[in-house]
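hi! just following up on the protien thing from before. the input was this:
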Amino acid sequence: GLQKRAQMKLTEIETKIADLQVIAGTFRAAIDAGCDDLTACAASECCPLPFAELDRGAHL
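and the predicted 3d structure came back as:
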């Protein structure tokens, strides 16, 4: 019924919000690190953007 669908939708929305909070934190870290060139940042070990993690996840 309505209660079950509403609870499922709420869970879905809360999951999306949590994901967006992680993304926002990553962008804050990039801003704080002074990143101004995506290519240069991605090649740096101190890059706060998770390029390496995303690449590994794509091959699993």
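The chain has one domain: 2-58.
The chain has a mean pLDDT of 82.
cheers
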